[in-house]
Amino acid sequence: MNRAPLSPTDRSTVRRVKSRAVTDRCALDAVLDNGLVCHLAVIRDGAPVVLPTGYGRDGDTLYLHGSAGAHSLRIAEGTEVCAAVTLLDSVVYARSVFHFSMNYRSAVIHAPVRHVIAESERLHALRVIVEHLAPGSWSHAREPNRKELAATAVLALDLTESSVKVRSGGPADEPEDVAAGVAWAGVLPVQAVWDAPIPADDLLGRTDVPAHVLRRCGAGR
Amino acid sequence: MNRAPLSPTDRSTVRRVKSRAVTDRCALDAVLDNGLVCHLAVIRDGAPVVLPTGYGRDGDTLYLHGSAGAHSLRIAEGTEVCAAVTLLDSVVYARSVFHFSMNYRSAVIHAPVRHVIAESERLHALRVIVEHLAPGSWSHAREPNRKELAATAVLALDLTESSVKVRSGGPADEPEDVAAGVAWAGVLPVQAVWDAPIPADDLLGRTDVPAHVLRRCGAGR
Asked: How many folded domains does chain B comprise?
């Protein structure tokens, strides 16, 4: 897939350790498509507030949703917000404590809030969010009715002003510490792993775990 | 351990789905002690910015650190910031897409920034951060020298104004969807799992993986 490179503005330019900045648009999609939780920062009463929330991506748009009554989504149209998705890959053990680090992939998005009003786009956004959270579920579970759709607020963020930062590899120790062999050094990988599905206590009817759920936890390949 | 309950202020009061709010101080410590990455939100040029960073907790203080030259840590003393740590436990599959959800534990901290100036507290904070990131490493690896310590900025956030939100259990479906058995429902647990350590390519001297690293990934019990 060919994608235009990211076009970072001043605030989305990675300043610290520029070698970790990635300007490939596919890298942004990869981080967003591999995460499940984003952290959304807004300003409330003059102070920053950050809250975790689910999301979904469709092309150049990140969709967020919540209850239409939620305080956290009462953000005026066009207000600048910031969202981050971070994937931790490993802890980096170095010879000196100064060089301990983490390997990670992170995406940070700066965008004005767009409230999704049209019912057709809200339905589309919910599908994107649900399919991101639980692939295969939209066609399996009951679709939202008018009342449920009306109770759901959807926000859209344009992905144009985004940055991606990646650290990978081993520790960046001082040469004299490497030569002296003062400590063990390496990385300890960490990854998010799915466990076996746990059916609901009150499950009736379709009690077999469906293929789309089994596939996700590696039991249905 | 007896802890004073959290004393939420207006902005740290959980508004949406109050049943998920937890006011037990030990719950805050448990979330912070089980996470590795926090998302720190600050205001820059009138817009919110959120960035991932490591941290460590000592009692009622959350310590963050970074390069003394880092743009992201240039925050004036006393400026209000917000930090969140989120642990994802499972994806909740419901009978209707409206009720899809996530089980999670999250902590949100509102606090004015305190710059840690005294060398003794900075050294202590770095120890707390490194021991949180990689338990057992402070006494194993080389301690920071004066130059490294001078190159490190440390911020402290007081944990008094914090909130904890937890969702657990199965889907909250509509009774008619449960009775009709319209779809499979349950939870798909997800957890962060350590893999086997990968030694650095240029490892000299202490080449055996030390016990404190093996213990972490479950190989040294």
From this structure: 2
User: A109 with A196, same domain?
Assistant: no
Tell me how far apart the alpha carbons of residues A111 and B36 are, in angstroms, rounded to a whole number: 27
Range of the domain at B215: 191-221
Tokens of B30: 């448990």
- Express each pLDDT in A146-197 by its tens digit: 999 999 999 999 999 999 999 999 999 999 999 999 999 999 999 999 999 9
Chain B hits for A178, CB-CB cut-off 8 Å, are: 202, 204
| One domain for residues A105 and A210 | no
Pair of tokens at residue B9: 């202020």
Are residues A162 and A85 both part of a single domain?
A: yes
pTM, rounded to two decimals:
0.92
pLDDT above 50 for B2: no
Question: Which of B39, B72, B100 is nearest residue A134 as measured by Cβ atoms?
Answer: B100
DSSP class of residue B4?
P
Place B25 in a pLDDT band, splitting at 50, 70 and 90.
confident
For residue A55, the chain B residues in CB contact (below 8 A) are none
Q: Which of A203, A152, A22 is nearest to B185 (CA)?
A: A203
What are the CA-CA distances from residue B14 to residues A44, A116, B8, B39, B85 (Å)?
Answer: 14, 25, 9, 18, 15
CB A123 within 8 A of CB A149: yes
ipTM score: 0.92
Residue A212 and residue A161 share a domain: no
pLDDT, position A19: 62
Are A128 and A196 in the same domain? no
A48 min Cα distance to partner chain B (Å): 6
Task: With respect to residue B54, please indicate whether it lies within any of the assigned structural domains.
Answer: yes
Q: Which letter does DSSP use for residue B208 in this model?
A: S
Contacts with A96 from chain B: Cβ below 8 Å: 141-144, 148
* B192-209 per-position pLDDT tens digit: 999 999 999 999 987 899
List pLDDT tens digits, range B112-146. 999 999 999 999 999 999 999 999 999 999 999 99
pLDDT over threshold 60, residue A16: no
